[in-house]
Amino acid sequence: MLKLFQITRPTRAYFGQKDAQQVAVITRMVEDFHLPVTLRIHPTIREADGLALSSRNVYLAPVVRSASTILHQALAAGQRAFENASSIGQTGVDEVIAAMQVTVARESQVLLDYVEVRDPATFLPLETLRAPALLLIAATVGTTRLIDNFLLRSDGTWESGRSLSE
Fold it and tell me: 119-142: buried (b, 16+ CB within 10 Å) or exposed (e) per residue?
């Protein structure tokens, strides 16, 4: 990306929140090298059933396509657990991770790679619930590895993506 930015000298570059780790790395690179480019991070675009749009989705066999929606359901369960734990003063992320794991475990066609609660800028694990935060999930559905995330912004609002119909 650095070479591309140096060759093309853009004033703006657009990325999707779905690839949160890429967003974090490129944001840090732009800051570290004082690049004169404004990054525009757009919400994850989702199918009506919550599946994040991805070029990998074409590899989902019809028989496992419906199983893939469990990733979005797990992130939503993690979000609810995060909000519940925060409201009663719990500081650990264990409840959030457990909520996501339990949700994925309901779907036998999905092999969980990881669920995490991380700092969106550094990608370091969070030890206490706070904003900003990033709920991350990766799993294999059939033969296809999928990733997804929900972002809790510094202002306390969630970015969970936008439906194709919006």
Answer: ebeeeeebeebeeebbbbbebebb
Each residue's pLDDT tens digit, 19-73: 999 999 999 999 999 999 999 999 999 999 999 999 999 999 988 999 999 999 9
Domain segments of the chain as ranges: 44-163
Q: Architecture of domain 44-163 in CATH?
A: 2-Layer Sandwich (3.30)
Sign of CA dihedral 138, 5, 41, 36: positive
C-beta separation of 38 from 149 below 8 A: no
| pTM of this prediction exceeds 0.90 | yes
Report the distance separating Cα 35 and Cα 40, nearest Å.
14
Q: How far apart are CA 123 and CA 11, in angstroms?
A: 26
